[in-house]
From TrEMBL:
Residues 20-52, 69-79, 94-117 have a biased composition (Basic and acidic residues). Residues 80-92 have a biased composition (Polar residues). Residues 18-52, 69-117 are annotated as: Disordered. It comes from the Eukaryota. This is Uncharacterized protein. It comes from Prasinoderma coloniale.
Length: 117
């Protein structure tokens, strides 16, 4: 009877140990799955980080290009402004010469004897 009790207790202990081993194995499987999920997420985050870095570099390059173009346009605007000032000055001088020439022609016409036909 004592031997049967020992066998029953041993069987119960073995069953309990087997159940605990199954729980441990299940927990281990869950941890492995979580670790695989975290690894996949880390890899995806790394890819996203690289893509963001590439996009940022592309945007920086585009911003530099736009800054350079803006500088070129400012130089062109300054050149055109100076050219316009020069043209206005030339036009003013031509207007003054024209007015002076017209006044001179009028004086010459006034001073000339009238022609009789």
């Amino acid at each position: 009877a004592a031997d049967a009790e020992l066998k029953r207790r041993a069987a119960a202990a073995a069953e309990s140990a087997a159940a605990e081993a199954r729980r441990i194995e299940s927990t281990r499987d869950q941890l492995d799955a979580r670790e695989a999920d975290l690894s996949a997420r880390e890899e995806a985050a790394g890819v996203a980080h690289r893509e963001i870095g590439e996009r940022s570099a592309a945007l920086d390059a585009r911003a530099r290009t736009l800054d350079e173009r803006q500088s070129e346009l400012e130089v062109e605007r300054t050149t055109m402004t100076e050219s316009t000032r020069g043209l206005r000055s030339d036009l003013q001088q031509l207007d003054e010469r024209l007015a002076s020439g017209a006044a001179e022609a009028e004086r010459a016409a006034d001073a000339a004897p009238e022609r009789v036909e």
